[in-house]
Amino acid sequence: MTWDEVIKSPYLRDLPFKIELNKFGQILMSPASNKHGILQSQIGYEIYRRKKSGTVINECSIETSDGVKVADVAWASDEFLLEYGDVTPYPQAPEICVEVVSPSNSKAEMEQKVELYLAKGALEVWVVRDRNDIAFYSYTGQMKKSKLVPKLKL
Predict the structure, then answer these.
(1) CB 3.0–4.6 Å: which of 38, 58, 100, 152 could bond 72 by disulfide?
(2) How far is residue 118 CA from its own chain's centroid?
(3) Quick check: pTM over 0.85?
(4) Peptide bond into 89 cis (omega under 30)
(5) In degrees rounded to 5, what are phi and psi of residue 48?
(6) Contact assessment for residue 130 and residue 100, using Cβ atoms and an 8 Å cutoff
(7) How far apart are CA 131 and CA 152, in angstroms?
(8) CATH number, residue 44
(9) Which domain holds residue 87?
(10) Are 74 and 61 in contact (CB under 8 A)?
Protein backbone atom coordinates (compact mmCIF):
# COMPACT_ATOMS: atom_id res chain seq x y z
CA MET A 1 0.00 0.00 0.00
CA THR A 2 0.94 3.62 -0.32
CA TRP A 3 0.51 6.14 2.49
CA ASP A 4 -2.24 7.88 0.52
CA GLU A 5 -4.14 4.55 0.29
CA VAL A 6 -3.76 4.02 4.05
CA ILE A 7 -5.14 7.48 4.80
CA LYS A 8 -8.10 7.09 2.44
CA SER A 9 -9.02 3.50 3.38
CA PRO A 10 -12.38 3.30 5.16
CA TYR A 11 -11.26 -0.01 6.70
CA LEU A 12 -8.33 1.57 8.55
CA ARG A 13 -9.98 4.78 9.75
CA ASP A 14 -11.19 3.81 13.21
CA LEU A 15 -8.60 1.29 14.29
CA PRO A 16 -7.22 1.88 17.80
CA PHE A 17 -3.67 1.43 16.54
CA LYS A 18 -0.81 3.56 15.32
CA ILE A 19 -0.31 2.58 11.68
CA GLU A 20 2.97 2.68 9.76
CA LEU A 21 4.24 1.12 6.52
CA ASN A 22 7.42 -0.82 6.00
CA LYS A 23 9.51 -0.48 2.84
CA PHE A 24 7.41 -3.17 1.14
CA GLY A 25 4.15 -1.25 1.67
CA GLN A 26 2.99 -3.65 4.37
CA ILE A 27 0.99 -2.22 7.27
CA LEU A 28 2.51 -2.27 10.76
CA MET A 29 0.20 -1.59 13.71
CA SER A 30 0.96 -0.79 17.34
CA PRO A 31 -1.76 -0.63 20.00
CA ALA A 32 -2.02 2.71 21.83
CA SER A 33 -2.45 3.04 25.59
CA ASN A 34 -3.76 6.00 27.55
CA LYS A 35 -0.32 6.40 29.17
CA HIS A 36 1.12 6.71 25.68
CA GLY A 37 -1.41 9.39 24.76
CA ILE A 38 -0.84 11.31 27.99
CA LEU A 39 2.93 11.36 27.43
CA GLN A 40 2.43 12.48 23.82
CA SER A 41 0.27 15.39 24.96
CA GLN A 42 2.66 16.41 27.75
CA ILE A 43 5.66 16.35 25.44
CA GLY A 44 3.88 18.33 22.75
CA TYR A 45 2.74 20.90 25.29
CA GLU A 46 6.21 21.33 26.78
CA ILE A 47 7.82 21.77 23.37
CA TYR A 48 5.12 24.27 22.40
CA ARG A 49 5.63 26.18 25.67
CA ARG A 50 9.40 26.49 25.23
CA LYS A 51 9.70 27.09 21.50
CA LYS A 52 8.58 30.56 20.44
CA SER A 53 8.05 29.60 16.80
CA GLY A 54 7.43 26.53 14.68
CA THR A 55 4.69 23.95 15.12
CA VAL A 56 4.21 20.82 17.20
CA ILE A 57 2.84 17.93 15.14
CA ASN A 58 1.24 14.84 16.69
CA GLU A 59 1.41 11.63 14.64
CA CYS A 60 3.83 13.08 12.09
CA SER A 61 4.24 10.82 9.03
CA ILE A 62 7.72 10.72 7.47
CA GLU A 63 8.87 8.82 4.38
CA THR A 64 12.01 6.88 5.35
CA SER A 65 14.20 4.28 3.67
CA ASP A 66 12.11 1.68 5.54
CA GLY A 67 8.69 3.01 4.56
CA VAL A 68 6.47 5.57 6.27
CA LYS A 69 7.15 5.95 9.98
CA VAL A 70 4.98 8.06 12.27
CA ALA A 71 6.72 10.04 15.01
CA ASP A 72 4.46 10.35 18.04
CA VAL A 73 5.36 14.03 18.36
CA ALA A 74 7.47 16.26 16.15
CA TRP A 75 8.49 19.90 16.11
CA ALA A 76 8.91 21.65 12.77
CA SER A 77 10.45 25.09 12.39
CA ASP A 78 8.69 27.84 10.47
CA GLU A 79 11.27 27.33 7.71
CA PHE A 80 10.48 23.61 7.49
CA LEU A 81 6.76 24.37 7.24
CA LEU A 82 7.33 27.02 4.56
CA GLU A 83 9.09 24.39 2.47
CA TYR A 84 6.88 21.36 3.14
CA GLY A 85 3.56 22.72 4.46
CA ASP A 86 1.23 19.83 5.23
CA VAL A 87 2.57 17.38 2.63
CA THR A 88 1.76 13.86 3.77
CA PRO A 89 4.02 12.05 4.44
CA TYR A 90 6.90 14.49 4.80
CA PRO A 91 9.84 13.66 2.51
CA GLN A 92 12.20 14.95 5.20
CA ALA A 93 11.98 14.68 8.98
CA PRO A 94 11.16 17.78 11.04
CA GLU A 95 13.90 19.04 13.34
CA ILE A 96 12.66 17.12 16.42
CA CYS A 97 11.09 13.66 16.22
CA VAL A 98 9.81 11.99 19.40
CA GLU A 99 8.93 8.35 19.94
CA VAL A 100 7.01 7.33 23.05
CA VAL A 101 7.88 3.71 23.80
CA SER A 102 4.94 1.31 24.02
CA PRO A 103 5.11 -2.14 25.64
CA SER A 104 4.99 -3.64 22.13
CA ASN A 105 8.10 -1.73 20.96
CA SER A 106 11.46 -3.47 21.03
CA LYS A 107 14.78 -1.80 21.73
CA ALA A 108 15.92 -2.66 18.19
CA GLU A 109 12.80 -1.00 16.74
CA MET A 110 13.46 2.21 18.67
CA GLU A 111 17.14 2.22 17.65
CA GLN A 112 16.09 1.80 14.01
CA LYS A 113 13.61 4.69 14.23
CA VAL A 114 16.30 6.94 15.71
CA GLU A 115 18.57 6.09 12.77
CA LEU A 116 15.79 6.52 10.19
CA TYR A 117 14.70 9.96 11.47
CA LEU A 118 18.29 11.21 11.72
CA ALA A 119 19.01 9.93 8.21
CA LYS A 120 16.00 11.95 6.98
CA GLY A 121 17.34 15.16 8.51
CA ALA A 122 16.02 15.30 12.08
CA LEU A 123 18.38 17.31 14.29
CA GLU A 124 17.22 15.48 17.42
CA VAL A 125 15.31 12.28 18.12
CA TRP A 126 13.89 11.68 21.58
CA VAL A 127 12.93 8.25 22.90
CA VAL A 128 10.56 8.58 25.85
CA ARG A 129 9.99 5.63 28.17
CA ASP A 130 8.44 7.66 30.99
CA ARG A 131 8.27 11.24 32.26
CA ASN A 132 11.74 10.98 33.81
CA ASP A 133 13.26 8.55 31.31
CA ILE A 134 14.05 10.32 28.04
CA ALA A 135 16.99 9.55 25.77
CA PHE A 136 18.10 12.31 23.37
CA TYR A 137 19.98 11.60 20.14
CA SER A 138 21.61 13.68 17.42
CA TYR A 139 23.78 12.69 14.47
CA THR A 140 26.75 12.65 16.89
CA GLY A 141 25.09 10.06 19.18
CA GLN A 142 23.30 10.15 22.50
CA MET A 143 23.17 13.48 24.37
CA LYS A 144 22.50 14.25 28.04
CA LYS A 145 19.77 16.74 27.16
CA SER A 146 18.10 18.41 24.22
CA LYS A 147 19.98 21.27 22.64
CA LEU A 148 16.85 22.50 20.86
CA VAL A 149 14.64 22.47 23.99
CA PRO A 150 17.25 22.84 26.77
CA LYS A 151 14.99 23.20 29.81
CA LEU A 152 12.52 20.44 29.02
CA LYS A 153 10.55 19.18 32.03
CA LEU A 154 7.71 16.67 31.96
Answers:
(1) 100
(2) 11
(3) yes
(4) yes
(5) -55, -45
(6) no
(7) 11
(8) 3.90.1570.10
(9) 32-143
(10) no
